[in-house]
Amino acid sequence: MAYSNTIRTADHGLIDQIRNLVSNLRDAHRRYKMYRQTVRELSALSDRELNDLGISRSSIRSIAIEAAYGK
């Protein structure tokens, strides 16, 4: 009579999911900090300095989003 014995190792699925979640949260936080820093730095410029860079004040947030999160 033949039989089969299956030995399973510990399932690290939950641990891997938690690690991925933490990694994603860190990445999201880093990107948000980059967004806020870009908005802060561009907002500190005068209208003349922004004009020299070819940036209107109304486009600061969209530029910061692109800088932090890509297109």
Structure in a nutshell:
The chain has 71 residues and is mainly α.
Main sheet properties:
none
- Number of alpha- plus pi-helical segments: 3
Number of strands: 0
Return the domain count. 1
What fraction, in percent, of the residue positions are helical? 55-70%
pLDDT average, as an integer?
A: 91
Can you tell me the overall shape? rod-shaped
Give keywords.
mainly alpha; 71 residues; 0% strand; YjiS-like
Structure description:
The mean pLDDT is 91. This protein has one domain (14-69). By secondary structure, it is an all-alpha fold. It contains 3 helices and no strands. The protein has helices spanning 13-44, 47-53, 60-69.
Map the helices and strands.
Layout: H1 13-44, H2 47-53, H3 60-69
Helix pairs in contact: 1-3
